[in-house]
Amino acid sequence: MNIFEEQVDLSNQRIQKSPIKLPVYDVDGNKKHLCEVFNFEEMLEDYSIDLEIRNYSENTIKTYQSIIKNLIRYLKDEENLYDDRRFLASFKKYIRDLKRDKNVTQNYIYLNTVVSKKFLEFNHIHFLDEIKNPKRTKALPKSLNEKEVKDLINCVTWNENDTELQKKTKIRDKVILSLLYSTGLRISELVKLIIRDIDFDERTIRVRGKGDKDRIVLFDEKTKDLIKEYLLIRESETDYLFTNRLDNKLTPRYVQLMIKKYAKKAGITKKVTPHVLRHSFATHLLKNGVDIRVIQQLLGHSSLSTTQIYTSVDMGTMKNIYDNARQ
Questions:
Q1: What distances in angstroms separate CA 123 from CA 2, 42, 89, one per listed residue?
Q2: Is the pLDDT of residue 314 over 90?
Q3: For the whole model, what pTM was predicted?
């Protein structure tokens, strides 16, 4: 059953979609709960498919799904939820309860608000249009210094006592660490890399990033040699560059745990993640004089302001740049 009716605005020839008149009554004349009027679970399935088509990462989609499912569960327990006004009031109460009972961060509140609004708007439901997105904190991402990155990559070693599988795994892991740092790839992009998209002569890789946008990333000579060494011993029937022993594409979770393991082995006390390596890549380029617009292009950012957040530099570097400029 189509719960929306299309209306034509003859003044400007625009098609507008508006919800059916609320409240909706059942056969006995009782007001129906909005969770009965709207099939939110089915809407979430459609929304998830749309996110996949738009090339959102698996982790992002899972996060969005979790947020929306939690909201749906909350709404189902709300009494007298039969019109847009009561929906708005329930959502405000939901956000208040998150702050009070869950003791979550301001960024989590921001994410819940934005995701909930986008989900409803996707389904042409505009109950939350008057809700303003809350402020979010912009904590600067952490990064490793050059020595820590070198220690992390170099701690991955193999010897003659390793089995063939152990050697292959270690070489693959070292390629992953080196590639993440030399390219600034997102973890979702790394696990989807296809061998044929690598150009060894140019030392470039064609990457499909957010929003199905293609970009070219660069890698250095050491990484080039590592990838070639890895491809010589790699045994796989798939086109994916990185696979596990069952010949399946690696998961982001595996890469995260792998990096954590080697960071511990390298004696790095900081939390090290794929995102930290991406930020380290950008920070080190900036510190070595690379134009921020070049970094923006390599990272695949649509907004320069996003790149500026990623590429914060330490105060010592800032002072050196400032002093040199003032001489």
A1: 12, 11, 20
A2: no
A3: 0.68
